[in-house]
Amino acid sequence: MGLGLTQYAKFLVNNGIDFLAVANQEEALFLREAGIETEILMLTPFCNETELMKLIKNKITLTISSIAQMELLEEMAKNNDFEIKAHVKIDTGFGRYGFLYKNPNEILQLFQMCDKIQIERNLYAFCKTHG
Of 57, 110, 65, 117, which Cα lies nearest the Cα of 88? Predict the structure, then answer.
């Protein structure tokens, strides 16, 4: 990958950063192949099961932006005995993608039904503040 992605990631990790975010699957897997072991969040939603399997096996934290993605993840986790870390994408009004911010309790209820998806950061705080 151009622009020194590996060197920059190593610099950040060596200086105390313990969580990186990347735009897509290629960047996430590139960093893993380069030996970066710190937590990596892929900001864009995943597309298909093949892509998803690679990301899960490489312990990439996934972004979930729809019920369909959540259901697919939960099913794959159960069928393969995976524990998956995920970030919940909330659409705050731009209409790009993600769960609508106006329904935080609905979002929380959906994820409480999941056994194998570990939500990263604090969705509960969001729901308490906005719901």
Answer: 65
